[in-house]
Amino acid sequence: MLTLALFPGVGLLAQAVPARPTVKQVKADMKRVADWQIGHFADEFRIRRGKKPPRGLGDWTNGALYVGMVKWAEIAGDDAYYGWLKKLSERQQWKLPQRVYHADDHCVGQLYLELYRKYGEAHMIAPTQAQLDRIMAATPTRDLKWKHVVSQDRWSWCDALFMAPPLWAKMSAVADDPKYRDWMFHEFQATTDYLFDKEEQLYFRDSRFFDQRHDGNKVFWARGNGWVFGGLALILPEIPKPSEQYDYFVGIYKQMAEKLVSIQTPEGYWPMSLLEADAYPTPETSGTGFNCFGLAWGINNGVLDRATYEPAVLKAWSALTRCITEEGMLGYVQPIGAAPGQAWPDKTEVYGAGAFLAAGAELVHLLEK
Fold first, then answer.
1. Which SUPFAM superfamilies does its entry note (predicted)?
2. Active-site hit among 105, 159, 177, 215
3. Model's pTM, two decimal places?
4. The domain that contains 67 carries what CATH number?
5. With 60 as the cut, is the pLDDT of residue 3 above it?
6. Range of 76's domain?
7. Residue 15 above 70 pLDDT?
8. What's the domain count of the chain?
């Protein structure tokens, strides 16, 4: 079994709540990670050439990176980051990937809507809006039991709640039309009714995990729940309040926040299997990043009590920054998967950087208050 002792730079001992970093320090770390990721962005295409089909610019992995990168662009004081994102979107012709219903292929649309909010050019969102209209006109009705390809026309896995629902919520806000939000709300409820464990206040990744146990523990994947929790922090700003929908989403959000803080490790991470810290001692930064982002958002927006939840944010951010290499790469990102696994100090993925940048942006807002 891997242990923290194998990983230089990551402390074994429990970390006391660290002092608040300065805004300057947070932005400096964000810039290092953002610049490294942009500089190495083409690597993911080269690495997979000859082994797997190269990822497209609209792949869900990149879509998650863009979520964080656009938040960094908002506070960086340098429009070059917006320029980079705009250029990538133009190469995509502002279109979603080919799978009409698949949530993973909707994630990149969140970037298009944020760029539309900045630039106001209608062609940036027209293809996405047309595809959402097409989906609503022929909504899939199959059940949510995990059957891999045939079950992915609906949100039958918890990751999907990050990929697609924020896009629908943003489209409602941008188009000033509740039909997108209402459709999303119905589907989100169906997925939550199916995958949310009310006892543990966490989401199963998909139906295959309902009866799985490891040493008697239910298996709740850290990044999977990070996808949901981070997704809620993207959805809630787009929902009118007071409203039934806002109350619903904030209710789930608060349950998850309470649970997540209670199981954060003393080192500041969340273990890859959330109820099994002893079995998964290796740091993991993608789930931790999304949880840090979600908690900081709640404090900033008056949903969570600052005195109660800020220590968890500060510990998580400190843990994340300890995993940045000298060159600026965020390490310990669990590879693509659907269950708890392994992570390494010299391995990264673009979605890990996206989570880190989203967390950093919310921490900057928290520190500025």
1. Six-hairpin glycosidases
2. 159
3. 0.95
4. 1.50.10.10
5. no
6. 4-368
7. no
8. 1
